[in-house]
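Troubleshooting log. The previous structure file for this entry was overwritten by mistake, so regenerating from the original sequence record. Sequence copied from the archived sheet and checked twice against the printout by T.R.
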Amino acid sequence: MSDNQNLLAEQRRALILDEVRRRGGVRVNELTRKLNVSDMTVRRDLDALARQGVIEKVHGGAVPVVEASTHEPGFEAKSALEPTAKEDIARAAAAMAVPGSAIALSGGTTTYALAHQLLDVPDLTVVTNSMRVADVFHAARPAGAGGGQRPGAAMVVLTGGVRTPSDSLVGPVADQAIRSLHFDVLFLGVHGISVEAGLSTPNLGEAETNRRFVESARRVVVVADHTKWGTVGLSSFATLEQVDTLVTDSGLSAEAREEIAERLPGLVVAGGSEDRSAPREG
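Regenerated output below.
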């Protein structure tokens, strides 16, 4: 972290957050030395991270916010976190969608970003339990000649179910609908991912619906920014061994990358010069 004077604010804050979480707390003067920036810049960065709810400012520094495993932020709150990373991940993941294939998108702000990128992939069949994701595709439908559906537009199936704080539909109705289908690829957003807990969420209903998604997919692609690594929700719904590819961003630490590479067949780091997007499969 010694040569970061020219980093963008968002990149710098990602490094600060990683340092806070890794060490359990940092002091302002330590960050000014490591980042080679002013005391005022560090304090502004800490203010911004505190407003996002990911750190807590203390006298002279900051400590991580330890959330209850049952805490589930709403969609708007999650949308404000790591927006650039989510866009990078979405572009990389979209390259894995094959024209004419059947895909599933779970709920979440990263899959929402991915939905926008998938609008240009022709003839997809999309199954989702996310009201937000479905809205993206439905809003793009009237672009064809004469006001009809544009050629190649995705056919979208929205499961029923009970709405969660993140605008996903879960419960027996959603589970039954997903159980009867088969997907070429599942693009799965997660609340948390770790070696011990695998993929997890604070919402029990969402955990069960995500299990059905995983069971019905030929390939499982997890889309998750670096802040999800090491986070554990109340309920685990899949192991790392059930994941084919993780698409994440360049904020993920080298240590975490090594752990993931040992356990997953595919790791795609998106963003900047490190973007290694998987090729589109035919």
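Residues 144 and 150 are 3 Å apart (CA to CA). Archived copy saved in two places this time.
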